[in-house]
Design a protein that fits this description.
Strand content: under 5%
Radius of gyration: 34 Å
Number of strands: 0
Largest sheet: none
Shape: rod-shaped
Structural class: mainly alpha
Number of helices: 2
Length: 91
């Protein structure tokens, strides 16, 4: 936007117009607005880190529960197979 514009050659009215255009296009923002956005960014980043840690903990618990479910399935399958074998021996 400002490429090719010589700031030194501008009149005071031209400089004012340039500043107003920069404010309207969002290239120049007040410090308070900038600090507010930085604070908001930091809050979102902290929330993301907390959510990421919680997701990691949940994934770890899910892996443990799946392993317990597999173990339980194998035990129940072995008990079932053993009972089927006992039934076939009785007959």
């Amino acid at each position: 936007m400002l490429d090719g514009i010589s700031i030194i050659g501008l009149t005071p009215a031209g400089l004012l117009l340039l500043v107003v255009l920069m404010v309207l296009t969002g290239r120049l923002v007040p410090r308070a607005t900038y600090l507010e956005k930085v604070k908001e960014r930091d809050q979102w980043k902290a929330a993301y880190e907390v959510e990421r840690a919680a997701r990691f903990a949940a994934d770890s618990q899910t892996r443990e529960l799946l392993e317990l479910a597999r173990t339980g399935t194998k035990v129940l399958q072995a008990v079932h197979d053993n009972s089927e074998m006992m039934k076939s021996e009785d007959t």
